[in-house]
Amino acid sequence: MRLTVNGSEHELDLDPRTTLLDALREHLGLTGAKKGCDHGQCGACTVLLDGRRVNSCLILAIAQQDARVTTIEGLGGHPVQRGFLEHDGFQCGYCTPGQICSAVGMLGEVERGWPSATGDDDPLSDAEIRERMSGNLCRCGAYPNMVPAIREAAGR
Amino acid sequence: MTAATRAIGAPLARLEGPEKVSGTAKYAAEYRQENMAYGWVVPSPVPHGRLRAVLADPSADAIAVLWHGNAPELAAADDPELAVLQSDRISYRGQPVALVVAGTLEAARRAAQVLQLDIETLPHEAVLRTDHPEVYTPDTVNPGFPAESSAGDVDRALAEAPVTVDVTYTTPALHNNPMEPHATIARWDGDDLTVYDSNQHPSGVAATLATVFGVDRVHVVTEHVGGGFGSKGTARPNAVLAALAARVTGRPVQVALPRQAMFSLVGHRTPTIQRIRLGADTDGVLTAIEHQAWSQTSRLYEFAEQTAVTTRHMYAAPHRRTGHRLLRLDMPTPRWMRAPGEAPGMVGLECALDELAEQLSLDPVELRIRNEPHTEPETGTPFTSRHYVDCLRAGADRFGWWGRDPRPRQQRDGDWWIGTGMAGATYPAMAQPSTARVRDLADGGFEVAIGATDLGTGARTILSQIAADALGVPTGRIRIRIGDSTLPQASVAGGSSGSASWGWAVTEACRELRRTGGAEAVFDTTDLIAKQEKEGRHAFGAHFAEVRVDAVTGEIRVSRLFGMYAAGRILNARTARSQFLGGMIMGMGMALHEEGVLDPALGEWINHDLAEYHIPAHADVESIDAAWLDEHDDQLNPMGSKGIGEIGIVGSPAAILNAVWHATGVRVRDLPARLDKILPHLPT
Ligand code: FES
Ligand code: FES
């Protein structure tokens, strides 16, 4: 099968049960996407699929032959990455690639006008950022530092 | 001082930050090996029994199915849980009874799922209770304290006290759940074992594996660790299983635990039942303090949580008694979870004090100030430094505490009841023997090597600051090497003692290098630490919380959380703040969200995943901040530092629970404070 990741195309011989996350980590050596639960419950495995954020542990690799996958390795110095460095938006770093990919995808959703449960007038208020990022767990509790990192990356 | 004092304390950014935000930082399961196989743990489906046989499905593509019937014999380690696949005895549900090895992850998981187990099921007990006939008093509680202590005549003092409190608080099983599940890749080259393992103590894991496999050369690589919170303090079964499977199959083997296994296989915080009795005069001066704690352990191993130990030094009172009781159950072994003992124990003590303040109509901050001891109350040992009252006052100032109406259920904003609460915090300041090596690289740089680990604490960065000051050079000239058991042996990243222990060894090694002017210096702190007094060394702090409780739904939000600490010299203002906040947020989880829900019939926590075991998420954390006093204590270690990784979770749960009472008038004494425990008691 074929998988297009960070702009490069890969030919792979995969078990049909292989998730996108395991294809990245175990077959392509792209270990930036993390496995925190393998059940779509933590967000550590978040990558971008045609620009939209997804939990790659819930997706079968074989179904994504026509998609463009972007992982943390392919973000190349995105402002969200710089924001995380600037604000100490992580501790152990294990949730971090997922948080960053999720934030990048989230900013795209805001741009497209997607609403959130908070319903603030400002779609990038701190409360909105927190709500929109709540699918990504961080056991180290680095949340308070991620919010300004994401806000500033959005140019606020 | 020299140029030196410039690096320590500075908010230096984490050295490994660029790797962590670009996805290139490597964690244990990420070291790809040629021809690697995958091991999948088969957990026991019963809490007590005997495994008679396993029956593998031949259609499943397994390379090996290991169980006690065919696994090689292992030497005993200190920890009986590492004797994996060595006997037919099943002591808890989730215990590994077999390991399936296959060429791919998918095949290993499938073969494990279809493996049939022939098990003789035996009766089990899973519920902690105080009136069980097998409740006993352990000889000591962790890490070596007497199980009981007493002074004066508590019963008489309580009988004579004009004001008393007699309350029971319970805390549930809590699960560490670092975001990176425990994982190991093991590879044998002859009798040389190399292990990539997620742990808090590479030197210790290497020594344990060497014992278990009876070999001399074990190399443990632990460059980055995705959190541990105590659960990775020692080698866990995944490390032994991976090495065992690699030995048998002759291939490198990865064993990465699924999240579900994290609830049973790597430790958890024991449930506790705590009875606290306080006696005071009408001015709020304590005459008696009693704290009795019950907790559980497993059939395999006695783990005695030191729940009531902090009560021995928090407050003055002439009559005092503490005690610990244990019950062995057919359940997984509890182990260390962030601030073991202190975190649950300070829920009991600090909530009970709030109840006393209520009875006295006395401000809770003032109550604590009136009971400040001048020396350790039980032993008379002086404190090396104790700025608890300063934390209470400064914290109250900064939080805007003063002038608060002490009566509950007085403040309302729309549908929200609003209240504030506070609680004290403490954590022991410890140091453990470690060895560091420093080399002059002759190009202006220095290499500092120590077998420490950085779990997200900032250890790597802080050690570079410590070394820079000790050598009198800028941090940019320090090259830190940690996370490898072949480096000089270091103590565990636990007990908030990492920076103190490793920083001490690094400082001494650097000083020696300067003294001798040589190319290399090595220093072992064992003798220095042996000479040190062990008592009277604690960090202190105070937590303040504001909560909003929805009058209609009972939903609880923590709208403000503030921690004020006196924790010696803060080595890195940036990473320290993150550590404090992280602890406080985990404390919020303990107060409001986290609970291993036991099914007694199954002997299992049924909510064993991250969808059902709730930890704080982004949306739970609103306004939160931490600050610290400039505390100087030159009796601790050359840096004057106290540990900061755990104190944030000590007292923050009680501050939130006390605020919930202030908002609603409802005392929740069985954690966590969920809306169903509050709603029935709210006025309609
Ligand atoms: S690993 Fe995919 S959501 Fe947790
Ligand atoms: S930084 Fe450790 S889990 Fe988020």
Automatic annotation (TrEMBL), chain A:
KW Plastid (keyword) present: no
Pathway assigned to this chain's UniProt record: Alkaloid degradation; nicotine degradation
| CDD domains for the chain | fer2
Chain ranges of the 2Fe-2S ferredoxin-type domain: 1-75
Keywords annotated in UniProt: 2Fe-2S, Iron, Iron-sulfur, Metal-binding, Oxidoreductase
Give any Gene Ontology cellular component: periplasmic space
PROSITE patterns, per this entry?
Answer: 2FE2S_FER_1, 2FE2S_FER_2
Please name the InterPro entries in this protein's record: 2Fe-2S-bd, 2Fe-2S-bd_dom_sf, 2Fe-2S_ferredoxin-like_sf, 2Fe-2S_ferredoxin-type, 2Fe2S_fd_BS, Aldehyde_Oxdr_Iron-Sulfur, Beta-grasp_dom_sf
One MF term in the entry's GO annotations:
oxidoreductase activity, acting on the aldehyde or oxo group of donors
Q: This chain belongs to which protein, by name?
A: 2Fe-2S ferredoxin-type domain-containing protein
Could you tell me which species this protein originates from? Actinoplanes utahensis
From TrEMBL, chain B:
In alphabetical order, the GO MF annotations are:
iron ion binding; oxidoreductase activity
| SUPFAM superfamilies referenced in this protein's UniProt entry, alphabetically | CO dehydrogenase molybdoprotein N-domain-like, Molybdenum cofactor-binding domain
Q: Which UniProt keywords apply?
A: Molybdenum, Oxidoreductase
Q: Give the species this sequence originates from.
A: Actinoplanes utahensis
Q: Where is the Aldehyde oxidase/xanthine dehydrogenase a/b hammerhead domain?
A: 22-123
Q: What is the lineage of its organism?
A: Bacteria, Bacillati, Actinomycetota, Actinomycetes, Micromonosporales
What protein am I looking at? Xanthine dehydrogenase
| Xref: InterPro entries | Ald_Oxase/Xan_DH_a/b, Ald_Oxase/Xan_DH_a/b_sf, Ald_Oxase/xanthine_DH-like, AldOxase/xan_DH_MoCoBD1, AldOxase/xan_DH_MoCoBD2, AldOxase/xan_DH_Mopterin-bd_sf
